Amino acid sequence: MKINIERNSKTALYLQIKNQIKDMIYLKRLPLDYILPSERELAKTLHVNRSTVVKAYEELKAEGLIDSQIGKGTYIVFCDENTLKNKSPSFRKHLFWDEIYSKNSKNNHNDVISRIMDIGNNKIISFAGGIPSPDLFPKSEFQKVQIKLLKDEVENMFLHSPVTGYKELKKEIKNLMLNREVRISTNNIMITSGSQQGLDLIVRAFVNPNDIILVEEPTFFGAIQLFEALGAEIVAVPVDEYGIKVDALEYLINKLKPKFIYSIPNFQNPTGITMSLERRYELISIIEKYGIPIIEDDPYGELRYEGKDLPPLKALDKNDYVIYLSTFSKVISLGLRVGWIVAPERVINKLGSFKQLTDLHVNTLSQYMICEFLKQGCYENHIKKIKKEYTFKRDLMVNELEKNFTEIEFYKPQGGFYLWCKLPNNVDLNLLLKKSIKNKVNYIPGNFFYAKNKEKSNFIRLNFTYPKRKEIVTGIKQLRNSLDEITKKEM
């Protein structure tokens, strides 16, 4: 529907809109039941005030040409006698899509992940996303990788690959896992579109509606949303400074007989806590005692800034109770979308049957590029580089918080992406977030990291890897200003 606005015309803007729509109706360019743009949408398209479109639509309604209905929108109701005569008796009116969604999809899953991923379109300092610094992407190394691939592998890297992943990349991941003290074969590996797809495949393969999954409290909101979307019941297990509390875990296992345990042992999202070695051994002992498998999510394990490296749970797992997830998204690039699963071969084969129903295989070009990046020995140097910068950024954010706030408590992580900050109980976090966004600073409120979003949390999660150094300084000051502004209002 094309409307031309003449701003120099003596005819009012709303009449120009009304008359052109009216002409299109009479000329049958807009048929019966045609859905018009919403008032807000048309106003944006025509660069006019919404009230202008509202007035035009009101006049068209008064003349019996259009009507509005909740759930349907604004639509054409005028038709002449010939149209009525020729209208088929089987003619159906506008389809109400909302009425035919599946029962599960009618649940309003929060779009927090989509909003985080859309930060590139906003002029805002973002402490919200779990996103690596775009400034640290190894451009020159990947340029060399691309040149070599275009010379040697140009035919293969644009073809399909096996469902479980490109074999050469699986060999490189096998070596990578050996550095993490995990001995496996390539048959134990599946390449995925990031670790989120890996988690989705695992849950779809094993979890039935109403099955119980034990998770750390708090935990990654993407996992919470996925478990809830597939009908699982989430039960939270408290954590302390050493990781998941095994006494509470054992009590819940005895009481509830869960299907799975989900854990992030290294630099946990959102708290940044690292599970102690003793706690890891205790956890493995418990899952073997009760026969409960565990999903180990390890996207941040390479990003240790101080202290000693600890073996993943998978390295301590001698009887195949642990399914391990990791990704290159946090250390190289989100855009390449390459992660992996480590599991028993029979489990990998089962997951492969689910994977082929969705995307067949991970982007072949991305797999070849990361494989060559690993083969050329670039990965180790890149990890050293980003760890140095992220250590600086973490310490910078810590210093700025200490300088600007006396009322915020936080845990300084030994690695990872986040600071988990506790604000006073009397702070209205909803109001603080609105004010902060108005002041061009974004972050994630703590309530997203609790099952069913019911926990009244006085925490916020701040990411220090994505923003530039100057943005960290400016953003923390703006957060301070936002807190001061809402505090003054309450007084």
TrEMBL record:
This is Transcriptional regulator, GntR family. It comes from the Bacteria. InterPro entries: Aminotransferase_I/II_large, HTH_trans_reg/aminotransferase, PyrdxlP-dep_Trfase, PyrdxlP-dep_Trfase_major, PyrdxlP-dep_Trfase_small, Tscrpt_reg_HTH_GntR, WH-like_DNA-bd_sf, WH_DNA-bd_sf. It comes from Clostridium scatologenes. Coiled coil: none annotated. Homodimer. The keyword Transcription applies. GO terms for molecular function: DNA binding; DNA-binding transcription factor activity; pyridoxal phosphate binding; transaminase activity. Belongs to the class-I pyridoxal-phosphate-dependent aminotransferase family. Its cofactor is pyridoxal 5'-phosphate. SMART domains: HTH_GNTR (SM00345). Keywords: Aminotransferase, DNA-binding, Pyridoxal phosphate, Transcription, Transcription regulation, Transferase. The keyword Transferase applies. It holds the Pfam family GntR. Residues 11-79 form the HTH gntR-type domain.
